[in-house]
């Protein structure tokens, strides 16, 4: 790993947060502990796309530590990072925005934050379920449009959550398990897809009669709500497309709080135009935000939120604190949460 033999807490390495406003967009976060450990530069933009600007910001500050939040950093920029760079901190869980193999070849450790938003994202799934079950989204739109018919003759089907089936794709992981923690007290039945046909040994819900492990196709066809909670990788990219959506009940809802590219968005749009399922709630999209010309903006059965699962104030401050923990560990001489060993 890219470490000096010894480090002292008194040493304050230069750190640059390339897109601090992505995390601290409201100026409400406290970076004082991180500032006490490093010579910190907060670049107050949501994202940088210009390779020259990225390289200049890193190298002109002689940065030893580079921090980002969900910002793609091209290989061309990393190739030109100066020899001062020893640690890349992704302030989040996903790290597919960094060329981690290239970083390793340059002796740079890449670290992430595996668990900062577990409850927040899990609660986002439940929020969508509750809104769908009570038809809150279409009712709000009617009122916004000046349509008050619901107050005389109700226009939308609404359902109790108790007894409904929730299917979790990738549901045996940390976030999926947190979703189950809330779904079971609400009286829901839970299906989890697994190629092995079982939960990992020692899993919290192993043997629970309300939690069953099934194939993906069975999960899709039996669930009233389908939530995607798996990571994005070569195996999961576009793994939910027209074939999978058409296996779902026509009354079912699809929820994605994971990564947008797990769904083939082009095929989803066609399915939603055909009313193949009752609705979709997407906190993540294939491109964030979707292009202005995308048909997804115009569909009345697709409900978009701007990747807010992690944006609650407490969640964002926790992220700052855990990023600081990673950096403090590095300064002390031991890197934690390395994703490119």
Structural class: alpha/beta
**Proportion of helical residues:** 25-40%
List segments where confidence is low: pLDDT < 50 over at least 5 consecutive residues: 3-9
**Mean pLDDT rating:** 94
Radius of gyration: 22 Å
Element string (H = helix, E = strand) = EHEHEHEHEHHEHEEHEHEHEEH
Strand content: 5-15%
**How many DSSP H or I helices?**
11
By DSSP, the count of extended strands is: 12
* Main pleated-sheet profile: 7 strands, parallel
**Largest sheet, spatial ordering of strands:** 8-7-6-9-10-11-12
End-to-end CA span: 7 Å
User: Can you tell me the overall shape?
Assistant: globular
Keywords:
341 residues; alpha/beta; 7-stranded parallel sheet; 5-stranded parallel sheet; 11 helices; disordered N terminus
Give an overview of the whole structure:
- It is a single chain.
- Helix 4 (100-105) links the parallel strand 4 and strand 5 (109-111).
- The longest helix is centred in the last third of the chain and has 20 residues, at 313-332.
- The protein starts with 13 loop residues before the first strand and ends in a 9-residue tail after the last helix.
- Mean pLDDT is 94; it is low at 3-9.
- The chain has helices spanning 32-37, 51-60, 75-79, 100-105, 118-133, 136-144, 174-183, 216-222, 242-245, 265-273, 313-332, and strands at 14-17, 39-42, 65-68, 87-90, 109-111, 165-169, 189-193, 211-214, 225-228, 253-256, 279-282, 302-304.
- Helix 5 (118-133) packs across helix 7.
- It is of the alpha/beta class.
- It has a seven-stranded parallel beta sheet with strand order 8-7-6-9-10-11-12. Strands 2-1-3-4-5 form a five-stranded parallel beta sheet.
- Helix content is 30%, strand content 14%.
């Amino acid at each position: 790993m890219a470490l000096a033999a010894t480090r002292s807490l008194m040493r304050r390495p230069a750190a640059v947060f390339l897109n601090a406003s992505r995390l601290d967009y409201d100026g409400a976060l406290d970076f004082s502990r991180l500032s006490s450990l490093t010579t910190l530069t907060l670049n107050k933009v949501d994202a940088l796309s210009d390779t020259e600007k990225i390289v200049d910001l890193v190298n002109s500050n002689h940065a030893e530590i580079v921090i980002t939040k969900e910002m793609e950093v091209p290989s061309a920029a990393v190739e030109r990072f100066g020899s001062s760079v020893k640690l890349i901190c992704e302030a989040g869980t996903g790290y597919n925005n960094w060329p981690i193999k290239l970083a390793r070849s340059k002796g740079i450790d890449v670290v992430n934050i595996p668990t900062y938003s577990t409850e927040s994202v899990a609660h986002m799934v439940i929020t969508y379920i509750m809104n769908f079950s009570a038809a809150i989204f279409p009712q709000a739109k009617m009122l916004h449009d000046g349509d008050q018919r619901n107050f005389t003759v109700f226009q939308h089907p609404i359902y109790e959550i108790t007894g409904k089936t929730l299917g979790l794709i990738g549901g045996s992981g940390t976030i999926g398990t947190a979703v189950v923690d809330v779904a079971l007290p609400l009286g829901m039945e839970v299906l989890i897809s697994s190629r092995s046909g079982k939960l990992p040994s020692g899993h919290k819900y192993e043997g629970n009669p309300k939690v069953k492990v099934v194939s993906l196709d069975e999960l899709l066809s039996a669930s009233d709500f389908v939530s995607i909670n798996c990571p994005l990788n070569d195996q999961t990219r576009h793994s939910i497309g027209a074939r999978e959506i058409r296996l779902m009940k026509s009354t079912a809802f699809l929820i994605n709080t994971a990564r947008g590219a797990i769904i083939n968005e082009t095929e989803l749009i066609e399915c939603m135009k055909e009313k193949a399922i009752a609705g979709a709630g997407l906190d993540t999209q294939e491109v964030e935000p979707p292009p202005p010309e995308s048909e997804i903006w115009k569909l009345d059965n697709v409900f978009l939120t701007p990747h807010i699962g992690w944006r609650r104030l407490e969640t964002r401050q926790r992220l700052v604190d855990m990023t600081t923990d990673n950096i403090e560990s590095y300064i002390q001489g031991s890197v934690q949460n390395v994703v490119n060993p």
